[in-house]
Amino acid sequence: METEDFAADAALFAQMRRMWQDVDPVPADLVDRMVATVAVEDLSREYALLTLVEASQLSAVRGETDTATLQFSDGKTSVLVHVTVTEDGARRIDGWVDAAALAIRLSQGDREWSTDAGEHGRFAFDSVPPGVSRLRLVVRGADDDLHDFQTPQFEV
């Protein structure tokens, strides 16, 4: 009996599929449009995550160092990063996260640095060479769930 029901259902679904193909066929370029839409949406999301908060225009007054402050957010977690060029040309990265961070990693290509967040979400990386970087954090959310937070790549 179950085999007969399955065959009847399959025949009915096949008939419905043919009817919809005749009445409302899938546009020929739908797949290409969807791929383009998803790609653009991903770029928009990454751009929204990266907000340039401050590029120090007063660095000449304060000294010869360059600084930049970047803010990243995914709607649940926010990270503020302040990048400073040190005297030897390396970078110091000071950051603050508004969630309980269990792990914080900074990566540049194959290199990776790890640190912990302090009591108020503060963390720092010293002697980072200039280059394209990315932060990865494991954070505990308000409802006690763990999730990964990853920034888009940024230049230090």
What does this structure look like?
The chain is 29% helix and 41% strand. The protein has three helices and ten strands. Mean pLDDT is 82; it is low at 51-64. The chain has a five-stranded antiparallel sheet. The chain has 156 residues and is an alpha+beta fold. Strand 3 (78-85) and strand 4 form a beta hairpin.
Beta-strand share of residues = 35-45%
Largest pleated sheet: 5 strands, antiparallel
Low-confidence stretches: 51-64
Average residue-wise pLDDT: 82
Ends distance? 68 Å
Query: Share of helix among residues?
Result: 25-40%
Counted beta strands: 10
Query: Radius of gyration in whole Å, from Cα?
Result: 25 Å
Which H/E pattern describes the elements? HHEHEEEEEEEEE
Summarize the structure.
With 156 residues, the chain is an alpha+beta fold. The chain has helices at 2-23, 30-49, 59-62, and strands spanning 51-55, 67-73, 78-85, 91-97, 100-108, 111-115, 122-128, 132-140, 146-150, 154-155.
Keyphrases for this structure?
41% strand, 3 helices, single chain, elongated, alpha+beta, five-stranded antiparallel beta sheet, 156 residues
Lay out the secondary structure.
Blueprint: H1 2-23, H2 30-49, E1 51-55, H3 59-62, E2 67-73, E3 78-85, E4 91-97, E5 100-108, E6 111-115, E7 122-128, E8 132-140, E9 146-150, E10 154-155
Antiparallel strand pairs: 1-2, 2-3, 3-4, 4-7, 5-6, 5-8, 8-9, 8-10
